[in-house]
From TrEMBL:
Mitochondrial glutamate/H(+) symporter. Responsible for the transport of glutamate from the cytosol into the mitochondrial matrix with the concomitant import of a proton. Plays a role in the control of glucose-stimulated insulin secretion. Pfam families: Mito_carr. It comes from Cyclopterus lumpus. Its main location: mitochondrion. This is Mitochondrial glutamate carrier 1. It catalyses: L-glutamate(in) + H(+)(in) = L-glutamate(out) + H(+)(out). It is found in: Mitochondrion inner membrane.
Amino acid sequence: MAQQQQISLPAKLINGGIAGIVGVTCVFPIDLAKTRLQNQRGQQLYKNMMDCLIKTVKSEGYFGMYRGAAVNLTLVTPEKAIKLAANDFFRHRLSKDGGRLTVFKEMLAGCFAGMCQVIITTPMEMLKIQLQDAGRLAAQQRVASSVVTTLKMGGTSGVLSRSYNASQVTRVSAIQITRELLRTKGVTGLYRGLGATLMRDIPFSVVYFPLFAHLHQLGQHSSEDPSVPFYWSFMSGCLAGSIAAVAVSPCDVVKTRLQSLKKGANEETYNGVVDCVRKILKKEGPGAFLKGASCRVLVIAPLFGIVQVVYFVGVGEFLLGYTPYNIYSA
């Protein structure tokens, strides 16, 4: 038994890593739209998710929808591995002789998992947001420039449509951003918005993991056969992820605003979580906290559905020569 537990941890880390890569690749364009919708204030460049994606493709090309994907794909492997493996680890530690956990202990395990993952999540999100939002800021500058030029020439038509056919967005890499942050602010620069990230990820994990465990358990064939059809794992991940995503959407808006280093013209700067919340309420109203909520659900639902399918299929166990249900504990 001890040997199985020792080998199961690497297997779970492999599962989490593969699951994260597959999931992120599928839903990244929607995540980019979410970031840009959450960050825009004042002048509305994008009406909704589809409008954002269409304008992104027009101005930046197809691969513009994957700006920041390299950072996410690189760091999502350790992030998802830590998140999923930590939840399993703490569930195992909190259970008595493999017994069934109470809802409180399930929530506690999720809380600890959320705390562990921010080691990777915070710098990953920090870099990803800068790359994702670069196109929005460039588009905003082009619109402002077009407006000024048009006013000087005495015309007013076609400003917005022409702006999206302008020159390509200036490219900036994650390595450049990292070097600049380390040079000017040290390691702490990469962990800007840590409090807001904790404020989002801990409640998300507290809601998601217990809810998923109970939904997943409903799909078991019998107490003797704990296996679950892959489609049930997918649907359980989607539903639990959707509910958790909506619950913490306001925290995600605050986190995104705090981690955006560059601002557009006349856009607010924030000094911490409380200041950010206060200014958003004052300038944009309560509805601003739900900006990008539908996009976030469309990202999280399939992402965690895919993640759970890969995780519970047991790719890691297969690669290590073990079947998933011999070492699975839920």
